[in-house]
What does this fold into?
Amino acid sequence: MSAAPEPDTDALPLPPDLGGRFEQLVTDRQLKAGRALAQAMAIGEGDSVLELGSGTGLLSGHLADRVGMRGDVLGLDPSPYHMAIAYQRSRPNLRFQVGSPADLSRFPNGCFHAITAIGLLHTWPEPLSTLQALRRVLKPGGRLGLVTHAAQPLHPVALAAQAVLQRPPYAACPMPPEDADHAVSAPDLVALLREAGFADVQVEAQVDAMRYATPQAAIAHVDAASWGRFLRHLPSKPVDLRAAALAEIAVALSIARGPDGLVHEGLRLVAVAHQAESPAPPSPPHRLREEPP
It folds into this structure.
């Protein structure tokens, strides 16, 4: 599976406040989920942790506090925009790299005690091969923790966008594979983890309720969560199709809006599994921190 291409910032200008909106989203939702996941995984003193999709590094700091100075945390994220903020949060036991979770070839076998991936699994077109790669870089007995949204029910913005994008002129502009949603159900996630070779698989489906006062608030949430990529495949010239599609989505959401606003009773899947194989063949030592000269 190839890494998702980065946006062309000349052709795809990002909103100047996008980093702040992303952080607000993470603080309110993903950070809480990440802290609960770290607790469930028993991440603690001396652990070596890989955080996939580390974003701007908010959860990374919490993980670094848990592992202490005898441990290490590496945040890996494909977006240089995230890293520009995350690098400012580096410390002796915490560092960041730009990279895709689809390519872990830089890491030797069995080098992490724990790996976390929050809000990421649904972006993997080939989840089985990615999970197998994660198992490879875990130490025997190491823990994998995942948080992702379930395939059903669809978010109201996704449901409205699905209907709008099937109509002309938008249907002539197919969504690129890297922007597609590959969410799974709880039973499917259990099966995937077991097929990938994990043991002691535990998957919990939690109600993840969200309420938006306006259609614009719901759309802004989705746009921030996707780091500004929502509908960015639609051209802006000679006609701004993205703006037109967003307007149609807003109309559909207005119709669906109830007295309490737009309410989404979604499901969040939380999974913890263990690497239970015998130790991998010897490989060069891996350190997250650079040794002083």
